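sry for the spam today, last one i promise. struct tokens for design, 254 residues
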């Protein structure tokens, strides 16, 4: 592992594929602090959640590069993504003992048009006993069946006190009276529905509970309609956060 600033930066082309923010500082961690804070949730000690990480949708390695720059870097990191070119770049530039990358051959019109036409694939090859599964800007681009599938997959991949940290777009579908009980998402692009996928909050709560998760913590979006960060856990040591109504400043329709 390395916490030095000698790690290559991804090409600007790749950075632009994964985010409109492409400045070098977005990919750096000069302080060496824990990337997402100490994550001392439940009975977890500060930093304990960083022991073994799966970066689900690692892109060109932004989060992994920052994790490697921590003063106390993870013992093991697995990066997984559908874009083969980015996985190849990460393998050649960021892989080292304890850090590996996997190409996930699932099709995406925008992000992986050359992949096989798989809607989903098992994640077993990535391993198990993860103390943290990171999914930044992934479920915001997956349709409902894909989201449920991958949440089910992840439930058996977590360590007993493991966490999922993922970003989501939420709506209140009561603001859309034409939506039936079976309709739980709002999409913004007819050509590529996965450009942005908004989930009904109540559907999200029901689904995660049905799959055995607890909502441990939520970091609400600072601007209306943008990413909300949700921490999910399965262990009884995590107290479930009781939320009845998300803030109307973060989620549409509230």
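last one done:
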């Amino acid at each position: 592992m390395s916490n030095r600033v000698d790690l290559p930066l991804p090409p600007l082309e790749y950075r632009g594929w994964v985010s409109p923010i492409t400045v070098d500082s977005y990919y750096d961690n000069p302080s060496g602090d824990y990337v997402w804070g100490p994550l001392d949730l439940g009975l977890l000690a500060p930093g304990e959640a960083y022991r073994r990480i799966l970066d689900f949708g690692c892109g060109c390695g932004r989060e992994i590069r920052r994790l490697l720059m921590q003063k106390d870097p993870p013992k093991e990191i697995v990066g997984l993504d559908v874009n083969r070119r980015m996985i190849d770049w990460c393998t050649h530039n960021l892989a080292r003992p304890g850090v590996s990358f996997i190409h996930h051959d699932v099709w995406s019109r925008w992000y992986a048009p050359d992949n096989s036409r798989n809607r989903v694939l098992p994640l077993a090859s990535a391993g198990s006993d993860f103390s943290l599964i990171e999914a930044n800007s992934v479920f915001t681009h997956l349709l409902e069946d894909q989201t449920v599938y991958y949440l089910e997959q992840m439930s058996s991949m977590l360590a007993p006190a493991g966490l999922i940290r993922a970003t989501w777009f939420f709506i209140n579908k009561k603001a859309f009276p034409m939506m039936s009980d079976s309709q739980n998402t709002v999409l913004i692009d007819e050509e590529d529905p996965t450009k942005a996928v908004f989930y009904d909050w109540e559907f999200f709560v029901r689904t995660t509970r049905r799959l055995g998760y607890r909502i441990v913590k939520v970091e609400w979006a600072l601007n209306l309609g943008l990413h909300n960060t949700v921490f999910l856990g399965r262990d009884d040591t995590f107290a479930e956060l009781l939320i009845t109504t998300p803030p109307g400043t973060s989620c549409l329709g509230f």
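The chain has a mean pLDDT of 96. ok im logging off now
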